[in-house]
């Protein structure tokens, strides 16, 4: 099994990088575990207060559960991955059954933040992008998908996204084995990652065959 961590700031292009990587792999050999699924449940918090949650701070995540489930996958055990709703700002009762796969991709803004989680990874990737480009992507996405007004997004970027990125996300770049600048637009870097992962997967298949 290969466990790959892919981190980077909001709007850096992580999702695009993940999508382009898994395009080269058979669907039944890869599982993508999004860090967004591991926000803490807020069932006991009034709904109006939930909306004030800072989703870009490490304290928003349920790290023990995140670590436990990635370790379980590494040990060949299936997990019940939690689901999270941004509409209610809390964890849902429904879960997603995930079987262990040959390639596990852990993706999220702070995928490289927690040491215990990092130690479970075979390859750590940081997807980087210009600050202005990330801001534009966030604005375009949140206006199109969530209907947020421009003024609110600019205020959120200045008061939450940028300071949290500078304090907690950008420093995790130091833990990365590979940094991909320009996000998913960096075709050469993405191609190299795809080749590395595909080669590692093929090597695992050969090792398993010879072991029989």
Structure description:
- There is one protein chain.
- This protein is an alpha/beta fold.
- The chain is built from seven helices and seven strands, in the order βαβααβββαβααβα.
- Strands 2-5-1-6-7 form a five-stranded parallel beta sheet, sandwiched between helices. Strands 3-4 form a two-stranded antiparallel sheet.
- A hairpin with a 4-residue loop joins strand 3 and strand 4 (90-98).
- Helix 1 (14-22) packs across helix 7 (187-211) and helix 5 crosses helix 6 (150-169).
Number of helices: 7
> What's the shape?
globular
Number of strands: 7
Helix content: 40-55%
Going across the major beta sheet, what is the strand order?
2-5-1-6-7
SSE layout:
Elements: E1 2-7, H1 14-22, E2 30-34, H2 47-50, H3 63-74, E3 79-85, E4 90-98, E5 103-107, H4 115-118, E6 123-127, H5 131-146, H6 150-169, E7 178-180, H7 187-211
Parallel strand pairs: 1-5, 1-6, 2-5, 6-7
Antiparallel strand pairs: 3-4
Helix pairs in contact: 1-7, 5-6
Offer a few descriptive terms.
single chain, 212 residues, alpha/beta, 5-stranded parallel sheet, 42% helix, 7 helices
């Amino acid at each position: 099994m290969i466990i790959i961590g892919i981190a980077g700031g909001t709007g850096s292009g992580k999702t695009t990088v993940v999508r382009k990587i898994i395009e080269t792999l058979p669907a039944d050999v890869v599982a993508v575990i999004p860090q967004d699924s591991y926000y803490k449940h807020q069932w006991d918090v009034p709904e109006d207060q939930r909306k004030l949650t800072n989703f870009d701070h490490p304290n928003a995540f349920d790290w023990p559960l995140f670590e436990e489930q990635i370790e379980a996958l590494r040990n060949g055990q299936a997990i019940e991955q939690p689901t999270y709703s941004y509409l209610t700002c809390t964890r849902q009762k429904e879960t997603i059954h995930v079987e262990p796969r040959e390639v596990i991709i852990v993706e999220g803004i702070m995928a490289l933040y927690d040491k215990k989680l990092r130690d479970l990874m075979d390859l750590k990737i940081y997807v980087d992008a210009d600050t202005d480009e990330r801001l534009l992507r966030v604005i375009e996405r949140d206006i199109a998908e969530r209907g947020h007004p421009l003024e609110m997004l600019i205020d959120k970027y200045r008061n939450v996204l940028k300071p949290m990125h500078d304090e907690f996300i950008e420093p995790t770049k130091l833990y990365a084995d590979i940094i991909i600048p320009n996000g998913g637009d960096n075709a050469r870097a993405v191609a190299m990652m795809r080749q590395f992962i595909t080669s590692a997967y093929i090597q695992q298949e050969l090792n398993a065959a010879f072991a029989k």
